[in-house]
Write a structure and sequence with these properties.
Helix content: under 10%
Largest sheet: 9 strands, mixed
Radius of gyration: 20 Å
Distance between the termini: 23 Å
Strand content: 35-45%
CATH class: Mainly Beta
Structural class: mainly beta
Number of helices: 4
Number of strands: 20
Shape: globular
Order of helices and strands: EEEHEEHEEEEEEEEEEHEEEEEH
Number of domains: 1
């Protein structure tokens, strides 16, 4: 077999506040690579470059098949999901804190959990059926002269039996009580990612959530209960330390260090995925541990809320290719 990584967009200027679409290739498609380039506005925001300042150019990234979303995430959620689900982390190019530095970051938009898999990818389509739609933020105070590159990875001759679908659910509880968020029914769920609006910091032990659990027809499955602290630390299962790419924030720990002493340490709360929680089910990517939802009347993520506010939930569904195309 052979894969084809080809360019679909060449340094296209980005017009903020607009929506643009691109036809995607017709061969079985493994993933899409979106590279954002921009000049750093260093003097506008101080000395520390925001890790997700460039990625936040995307309000919404969508892959639409015949008008229906098979992928719909914000730029920041795309970064976190591809790290937690696919083990892909953009390293960042030239991520300095000087004004006019040319940054570049690549985001992964996957249609598979295993990149280049000939069996898990989006199946062959007809031209115009599969569309990439990008919604740009109204403003970006961190970068200007923004440009976009798009590359796709096709798998000609692949026999796709399934692909993954990722869309975003929202919940905004108004009280610190358990809240059930309905998850999609009908397809196996491989992973669930949760963004919480608040995490522990300084002397505060309060995060947005206290515990999470999964219920199918009101019976616990996989996670009868799990503490947030445990789930936060379990993100270390990814292949590289989360948030240590390119630019990250350090804090001074000694005002007058002696030779050889540590003078700074990274601040965990500044990691780009610090607010994300990952509940994996299909650990081996073979269906053995997938959360089966077919035939269920209700599949819920129960959130034990500690501090009410907005939450985002991203279920990763495994879709049988024959029934979808």
């Amino acid at each position: 077999m052979e894969f084809i990584q080809s360019i679909q967009a060449h340094d296209v200027p980005i017009v903020l506040g607009t929506v643009v679409t691109y036809d995607l290739p017709v061969h079985p498609l493994s993933h899409i690579l979106l590279t954002l380039k921009g000049k750093r506005l260093g003097t506008a925001v101080g000395d520390v470059p925001p890790p997700m300042g460039l990625v936040a150019t995307f309000d919404r990234i969508e892959v639409l098949y015949k008008g229906s979303a098979v992928y719909s995430l914000s730029g920041v959620d795309c970064f976190a999901s591809s790290l937690l689900v696919n083990g892909f982390e953009t390293w960042g190019v030239n991520a300095g804190d000087i004004e006019d530095y040319e940054w570049a970051q690549t985001l992964l938009v996957p249609l598979t959990r295993t990149l280049y898999s000939p069996t898990e990818c989006f199946p062959q389509t007809t031209r115009g059926e599969l569309i990439l739609q990008l919604t740009y933020a109204a403003a970006n105070v961190e970068f200007d002269v923004l440009r976009l590159q798009i590359e796709t990875v096709e798998l000609p001759g692949a026999s796709a039996s399934q692909f993954i679908k990722q869309t975003t659910l929202s919940a905004t509880p108004t009280a610190n009580v358990p809240l059930d968020v309905p998850l999609p029914i009908g397809n196996p769920i491989s992973d669930v990612i949760v963004w919480q609006h608040q995490i522990q910091t300084g002397i505060s032990d309060t995060a947005g959530l206290d515990k999470l659990e999964i219920l199918v027809d009101n019976k616990n499955r996989f996670y009868p209960e799990s503490f947030i602290e445990c789930l936060q630390n379990m993100s270390g299962r990814v292949r590289c330390p989360p948030g240590y790419w390119g630019a990250h924030t350090h804090k001074i720990v000694l005002s007058t260090p002696a030779p050889g002493q540590q003078v700074s340490a990274p601040k965990p709360e500044d990691h780009p995925i610090a607010c994300y929680l990952h509940l994996p089910f299909d650990i081996f990517r073979n269906g053995e541990y997938a959360l089966q939802t077919s035939g269920a009347s209700a599949v819920n993520l129960r959130m034990d809320v500690s501090a009410f506010g907005a939450f985002r939930i991203i279920p990763v569904e495994v879709i049988g290719a024959a029934g979808a195309v």
